[in-house]
Amino acid sequence: MPVAIITGASKGLGRALAEALAARGWDLVLDARTRGPLDEAAGAVSAYGTRVSAVPGDVTDAGHRAELVAAAEKLGGIDLLVNNASALGAEPLVRLERLPLEGFRRALEVNVVAALGLVQEALPLLRTSEAGTVIAVSSDAAAEAYETWGGYGASKAALDHLAAVLGEEEPGLRVWAVDPGDMATDLYAAAVPDDGDPRPAPASVVPAFLRLLDERPASGRYAAPALLEGQR
């Protein structure tokens, strides 16, 4: 069976994507920082009958990234790596003049440096897969200027560029940066706690990711809302 590593998989989009892949027969390695929620998510996902390995830890830790890849190798390899774990830089978000530099460094470490580190760790196995794929979960804040979203958006813009270059350097892989669009997640609630407007559940955008996996278009940046409407 195909094998995927998904970071930030204890809730939100990561968990929804894990459940959808498990329903299709994928074996999974799931990451999150907190063991309890991760174990609960892994138990729910394993109900689909596939093998699920829960590996708690911080993606900024090189040893933890090595553990994720080792767990995937035990399941047979790596066909898909989803860099979904994210940090905001400040909770709630603030204007750049007030953005804590330590928080910004944390966002860069989680969203960019750790993502690249995990790609580097996984590349030998991804290259041996007939359908090796990397998904970088991006944001519209990477391409649009929204007040208070500067630090987070800058980190996601950097992630987008790494994904674009990786796609050029690894023509045997598919490398997609995917903007999932607005979602009702804990991350968004922490970013803008006063925003009470309804937003789609993460599971509602998962079909866009599945479409990419089914159709395997060229490496590049894709927006989930457009994929759901049948357009790039």
UniProtKB/TrEMBL annotation:
PROSITE patterns: ADH_SHORT (PS00061). It holds the Pfam family adh_short. The keyword Oxidoreductase applies. Keywords: Oxidoreductase. InterPro entries: NAD(P)-bd_dom_sf, Sc_DH/Rdtase_CS, SDR_fam. The keyword Signal does not apply. Belongs to the short-chain dehydrogenases/reductases (SDR) family. This is SDR family oxidoreductase.
